[in-house]
Amino acid sequence: xxxxxxxxxxxxxxxxxxxxxxxxxxxxxxxxxxxxxxxxxxxxxxxxxxxxxxxxxxxxxxxxxxxxxxxxxxxxxxxxxxxxxxxxxxxxxxxxxxxxxxxxxxxxxxxxxxxxxxxxxxxxxxxxxxxxxxxxxxxxxxxxxxxxxxxxxxxxxxxxxxxxxxxxxxxxxxxxxxxxxxxxxxxxxxxxxxxxxxxxxxxxxxxxxxxxxxxxxxxxxxxxxxxxxxxxxxxxxxxxxxxxxxxxxxxxxxxxxxxxxxxxxxxxxxxxxxxxxxxxxxxxxxxxxxxxxxxxxxxxxxxxxxxxxxxxxxxxxxxxxxxxxxxxxxxxxxxxxxxxxxxxxxxxxxxxxxxxxxxxxxxxxxxxxxxxxxx
Length: 375
Prior knowledge:
Elements: E1 2-5, E2 19-20, E3 31-37, E4 43-50, H1 55-60, E5 63-68, E6 71-76, E7 82-83, H2 86-102, H3 119-125, E8 135-137, H4 143-151, E9 157-162, E10 165-166, H5 177-188, H6 190-193, E11 197-200, H7 207-213, E12 218-223, H8 226-238, H9 256-265, E13 266-272, H10 278-294, E14 299-306, E15 310-312, E16 317-319, H11 321-334, E17 341-347, E18 364-373
Parallel strand pairs: 1-12, 3-8, 11-12, 11-13, 13-14
Antiparallel strand pairs: 2-10, 3-4, 4-9, 5-6, 6-7, 14-18, 15-16, 17-18
Helix pairs in contact: 5-7, 10-11
């Protein structure tokens, strides 16, 4: 796996304030070690993202466990989901009913209950939604982090350096739900991606490419900006227990051999959560067209995103402008008639197993685009 720059990607102009991802609040890592400041002075944290099953289990075909809010499900090696125990569901329903009554005071008004502070209190309250508040550990306090690191086995943990809050132009340095969704799909359909050559556009921290690297033959993880690519390369090195890092001839640049290999063998292109700005969306679709047109063979494109709702003064209503622009551009790609390429678009149902702990909200979407040569 190699981290490379997107040399053909246009450079859009962003207009926004600080953006914060909430993924770190829903991951099993209860502590976030601040390891350094990046080149622009932003704090960089190290988090452990634990798989709900190990790569060894995936290879052996053992039972796979899915965790969702409210109940537990099981499946066997990615087969159909089945209820683990219907009696558990009934019991949880009773607890939920009792909880609602407890939240009302004598007058019937809603009474807000504070979240329990300790793990024992959480168990006593039978809280099903596992949300943890990050504990920031400063550099020099690594000893406090050792216990958690020892609990992480090589086969079921992805280590990622990331930031927690950035300007819009640096959101690639954070971790986002759509990247976890695409990683889930990769592990669920691992036989589909086995031995493939894969290109990721807008790889960010590299977490999706790292997961892909556990099954694919070769992964080219690309993005824009030396500081971001440095972070991505560091994350690849942190996860060498899961994959074999590549060795590019020059840092963050394409060699003639790599370009030839990509054009001759790439069969999968993927992108996760890069459709939050209209200019960036346009640039990515132009890049997609250029690359798929130049590939020797047809390929499949996977696009993961989160539909974000925003209240705008212009509309005086809640809108999804960035998502609407994405859908319109996707429709334009499907309806393109240039006599050279044919693009077939279809949504992917999100009923596959969850392998990473995050909140799979209903606003998440995954799209599959088949790019075929006509001549």
